[in-house]
Amino acid sequence: MSGLMPLEIHITPGEHPERHLFGLTFNIDTIISTLVAGAIVILLGFLVRRALTRNTEDHVPTKLQIIWESVVGEVNAQVEDNLGKVHPFVAPLAISLFFFILVANWLELVPTELNERAHLLPAPTSDTNLTYAMAIFAVVSVWIYGIRKNGLAYFKHFVQPYPVLLPLNVLEELVKPVTLALRLFGNIFAGGIMLALIAAIPWYAGMPIANVLWKMFDMVIGGLQAFIFALLTVLYFAMAGAGHDDHEEHAEHEEKTPELAA
Length: 262
Known about the structure:
By secondary structure, this protein is mostly helical. It has helices spanning 28-54, 63-83, 90-106, 128-150, 166-200, 208-240, 242-261; strands spanning 18-21, 24-27.
C-alpha cells in the first residue's frame, strides 16, 4: 500500500481557452464545439433530405430517416397537443433545438488519447454562455409570439388572478430563461466531470466497462435534457398563446350557439 502514488485529479470548472477581441472574451473550445454540433445537425438534415429523394419510388426509409421522422413526429404531436395545431415556427424551432442540443450533449462522449482530457471535444452545453444564449432566444421568441397573437392583451396574465401578484408574475417570467439554461448546464456539466473522474481512476485500463456504462447513462441523460428543453419551449409558447386561443374558442362557441338553438 505504501508504494501506491496518491491520485491527483485536477478539475477546473468554468475555465476555457480564451481569446480576447475588442474587449470581449471568447471561449474557443465552446465556439469550436458549437460549430461542430451545428455542422453535424445540418449534415444530418441534408442526408435525410437526400434519402427522402432517393427513396421516393421504392418507399424504403433508411435508419437515419426513421429516427429523424420519429423525433419530428413526436415534437409535432407535442406542439399540436399544446397549441392546437402544428405551428409553422414553433415546431421547426423545437425540432432544431432538440437535435442541436442532443448532438452538443453527445460530443463529449467521443474519447481521445491526444491529450490529458477524457474527451476530444467538450459539450458546449456545459458552458453557461451557450445555454443562456439558447434560453434567452427561446423565451424572447415566446414573448414576441404572445404579443403577436394577443396584442396588448398578452400582458393581462401579469395581473392574474390578482393584481397584487404582478411582481411575482414578472419575476417568474424573468426567471424562465435562467432555470431553462441552468437545468441543461448543470446536468451536462456534471456528466462531463464524471467522465473525467472515471477516466482518471487507476483501474480504468483494467475495467473499461465502468466508462462504457457511464457513457451509456450519459447518452440517456443528454437525450432527456434535449427533449426537456424542447418540450419546455413548446409549453412556454402554448402558455403565451393561451389567451388568444381561449378568446377564439369563446368566439367560435358564441357563433355556433345561435345555430344550435335554431
